[in-house]
Amino acid sequence: QVQLVESGGGLVQAGGSLRLSCAASGSIFRLVAMGWYRQAPGNQRELVASIINSGSTDYADSVKGRFTISRDNAKNTVYLQMNSLEPEDTAVYYCYYSVRRYSGDYYYIWGQGTQVTVSS
Question: What pLDDT tens digit does each residue of the chain (120 aa) get?
């Protein structure tokens, strides 16, 4: 069973930067997309950024121009570069890989979550 291991979270002052990494423990076949969600206390989980096989990316409006998602296929790793961080970015960040089954439906593999705290 492939697992996703996240790293890179922490405490940073407003305006600072962090880089999150999410590494898969093995190769994943029929990978469709990778991305990041976040969840702040009392809030629903929010899609932050995603990247599909073609390399096309998508971002939540709240992070456009500040966050960049990228991947290294050779390392089975997806990254989230977060710049100009704001206190509102404080949350637990979860990476995911979306995989297509032979049957055609999809399932998700999730990382364990990493805390990002931005102080004002």
Answer: 899 999 999 999 999 999 999 999 988 888 899 999 999 999 999 999 999 989 999 999 999 999 999 999 899 999 999 999 999 999 999 999 999 998 989 999 999 999 999 999
DSSP string, 29-85: TTEEEEEEEEE-TTS--EEEEEEETT--EEE-TTTTTTEEEEEEGGGTEEEEEE-S-
**C-alpha to C-alpha distance for 34 and 14, rounded to whole angstroms:** 27
User: CB-based contacts of 54: which residues, under 8 Å, 6+ apart?
Assistant: none
